[in-house]
Specification:
Layout: E1 4-12, H1 17-24, H2 32-49, E2 66-69, E3 77-82, E4 91-98, E5 103-107, E6 112-120, E7 122-127, E8 130-135, E9 139-142, E10 148-152
Length: about 160
């Protein structure tokens, strides 16, 4: 079977003014303690991501990374090339291969955006109401809060 390969880059970014919006929203209906807890957590995350902390370089070879199965089928292997713990929570990069007709079901991320890069083959992406056919070299952006999925559409 003909496989398609892709690179997934997940970037975790938080808008600094989110905490201010929560703090100023007096009609949220939330318990004050819970509201202050959420504001504190948002501010803490924002501070960490915008701290200017320098992250040491990381090198991962072409056959290196943490391998794992994602789907209940063989050949659905993913390789984590770079973990959030290696980038102070700023970025995660994963490489994967999927067989013809296979893919990842609809899902939504609430904390991070995703960037896909089709390395080899044809992958169809469903992002919100839009269908995008990615071929070798294509970059696709999927925003957080938007339902998305993808599948290998190569012919056998």
């Amino acid at each position: 079977m003909k496989k398609s390969s892709f690179l997934l880059i997940r970037a975790s970014t938080f808008i600094a003014h989110a905490a201010k919006i929560w703090e100023s929203n007096t009609n949220s209906g939330l318990d004050q303690n819970l509201k202050y807890f959420i504001v504190d957590k948002l501010q803490s995350i924002s501070d960490r991501l915008t701290s200017g902390k320098i992250v040491p370089p990381v090198t991962v070879g072409s056959n290196q990374g943490d391998r794992f199965q994602v789907l209940a089928v063989s050949n659905s292997e993913r390789i984590i090339k770079l973990r959030g713990s290696q980038t102070d929570g700023r970025l995660m990069i994963m490489e994967g291969e999927i067989l013809v007709g296979e893919g990842h079901p609809h899902h939504i991320h609430h904390r991070e955006d995703e960037y896909f890069h089709v390395l080899v083959g044809k992958i169809e992406f469903y992002i919100g109401e839009e269908t995008i056919r990615g071929t070798t070299g294509t970059w696709i952006f999927a925003s957080r809060y938007i339902k998305h999925s993808y599948r290998n559409v190569n012919s056998t």
